[in-house]
């Protein structure tokens, strides 16, 4: 790994720690054991990409890494070699949709770094605890700090696409004229809504949406969880 290479996520750091545990071989060598490319391994370790369920299963199958530890940091890094336990772990990893978009939580309301959706591996147990189903879950990244401290810059958010109706005080991902934003909702008495930031200060003023314009807003889903970088 290059000396100045920055690791952006906790998951990326855990992946990097696994390679270090096995003697810190070069990525070109280590990736062959996992059946992935050197470039993909670099993207995963830097936190530029999130590995899908097949990659997580390769870490478990080839290296004995506990998939739930890899995703959450909870428990021990290495799973038992018991086949029944491995089968159980495999069943707990499901694919959910990840949009490599930067959802704006800042005043600019601008979508950046837009790419096509991909599937990533996620613990079914975690989704169950959040009340989410794999098919209706969308994972996105946030750009900007207007929702701090609730949602910080660079946070990964879990969005429930089943919740399309705006409710008072909840946080939603909204599409406004093609731009994606994450804001807290205030329902106004006249039928309009106000988009609120959690951060204080004049840099983050409320944004009023008149009743006639509310129907133009597309609700992507409600934010149910945010995981922030340390």
UniProtKB/TrEMBL annotation:
InterPro entries tied to this protein: Cro/C1-type_HTH (IPR001387), Lambda_DNA-bd_dom_sf (IPR010982), LexA-like (IPR039418), LexA/Signal_pep-like_sf (IPR036286), Peptidase_S24_S26A/B/C (IPR015927)
**One Pfam family of this protein, by short name?**
Peptidase_S24
Keyword annotations from UniProtKB, A to Z: DNA-binding, Transcription, Transcription regulation
An example Gene Ontology molecular-function term? DNA binding
Q: Which residues form the HTH cro/C1-type domain?
A: 33-70
Highest taxon, organism lineage: Bacteria
Entry-linked Gene3D superfamilies: lambda repressor-like DNA-binding domains (1.10.260.40), Umud Fragment, subunit A (2.10.109.10)
Q: What is this protein called?
A: Phage repressor protein C with HTH and peptisase S24 domain
| Species, as recorded | Martelella mediterranea
């Amino acid at each position: 790994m290059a000396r100045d290479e920055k690791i952006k996520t906790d998951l990326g750091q855990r992946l990097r720690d696994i390679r270090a545990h096995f003697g810190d071989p070069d990525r070109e060598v280590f990736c062959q054991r996992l059946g992935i490319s050197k470039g993909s391994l670099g993207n995963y370790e830097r936190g530029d990409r999130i590995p899908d369920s097949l990659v997580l299963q390769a870490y478990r199958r080839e290296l004995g890494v506990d998939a739930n530890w890899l995703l959450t940091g909870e428990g021990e890094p290495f799973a038992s070699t018991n086949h029944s336990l491995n089968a159980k772990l495999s069943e707990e990893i499901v694919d959910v949709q990840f949009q490599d978009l930067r959802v704006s939580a800042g005043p600019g309301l601008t979508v950046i770094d837009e790419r096509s959706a991909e599937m990533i591996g996620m613990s079914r147990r975690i989704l169950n605890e959040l009340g989410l189903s794999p098919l209706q879950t969308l994972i996105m990244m946030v750009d900007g700090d207007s929702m701090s401290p609730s949602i910080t810059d660079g946070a990964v958010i879990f969005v429930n696409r089943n919740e399309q109706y705006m409710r008072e005080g909840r946080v939603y991902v909204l599409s406004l004229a093609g731009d994606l934003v994450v804001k807290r909702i205030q329902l106004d008495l006249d039928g309009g809504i106000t988009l609120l930031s959690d951060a204080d200060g004049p840099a983050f003023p409320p944004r009023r949406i008149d009743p006639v314009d509310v129907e133009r807003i597309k609700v992507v889903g409600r934010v149910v969880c945010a995981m922030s970088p340390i």
